[in-house]
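[Meeting: bench + compute handoff]

Bench side (C.D.) handed over the final construct sequence. Compute side (W.E.) agreed to return the predicted structure before the next meeting so the bench team could plan truncations. Sequence as handed over:
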Amino acid sequence: MNSLSLEGKVAIVTGSSRGIGRSIAEHLAAAGARVVISSRKVDSCRQVAESINDSGGEAIAVAANISDKAQLEQLVDATRQQWGRIDILVCNAASNPYYGPMADMPDEAFDKILHNNIVSNHWLAKLVLPDMAQRKDGAVIIVSSIGGLKGTGVLGAYAISKAADMQLARNLAIEWGPHNVRVNCIAPGLIRTDFARALWENPEVLSHYEKQTPLRRIGEPEDIGGIAVLLASRAGAFITGQTIVADGGVTIAG
């Protein structure tokens, strides 16, 4: 028995045209899931879907802006029209338009971060959880961040939103656990993605982070995809309401 197999499962992964989301989508597809690639730009989504299909997987592209509830509804509807069900939801897309002290943060930036990083995940979960509950099987994975585990002087609203995602997972795990639906978070550390480019492209910041990290390196998108497979598969069937930290050990080092 392959407890990591996702054969027959259907997964939606938001923000999956690049970075962590793409890695998760590729890993889910490699495990046998049919995957919906979604981000704002349909051309980027199609490129990833085509790459997965060319590699022997099965994927389609459905563009959606997470800030728009109607577009998220369309994403879910398109998935059901194509494959009839949704077994796995990965809420990976997020925003962080502001870097600096919260005292100087415009209200619009604060609102956008909380809306896109928390409310949109709540919307998507509400759209898929009832059907999962009816089938007595399903997995929701929210990509959070170690930023939600400690204070920060420059990523305030983002960190708040990521802490809230952990609590969202705990609440949903309590509500939907009796229906055999599991909800968990992954909290990556610094990963070499476009989203975090300003950090890892700075030699001083990169060197400082690597010295602080027990594994002496920053993460790669490929370090995260397999964790999603674990949480979505039979191997993770008794895990719910948890946050799995994947940070090379930086949060336990100091």
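W.E. noted at the follow-up: DSSP finds eight helices and seven strands in the chain. C.D. will use this when planning the next construct.
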